[in-house]
Amino acid sequence: MSHDLNLSPEIETRLFEYAKATGQDAVHLMQLVVSRFVEHEIPRDGEPEWTDELNARRVHLIEKDVTGELNVEEKVELHSLQKRAERYFDHVSSPDIEIPTQLLEQLLAKANEANGQE
Prior knowledge:
This protein has five helices and no strands. It is an all-alpha fold. The chain has two domains: 1-42; 48-118, no CATH class.
């Protein structure tokens, strides 16, 4: 499958400068980015959204990033893992609004009873 990419001039310039500076092929870098995006951003059917193994890999890549040892492929992977982690943590930490709403209704009912209002 072949497609033309319409990158902004700035992105294209930066990509080709980076490829030249690192001795990598720009087309290979673009293929890598697309492959990593699909692999990490588009979950497979039945694939768990987040696992301990993914988190361990993310932590390992963060440690390498701090020491300046990440290569291009790992930077792309880390970015994707960070995005997946953020989505997962946002999902599991979403407040359940039903419980506070019920509690508020109970407290208001008690307050109204105490004030002689029903």
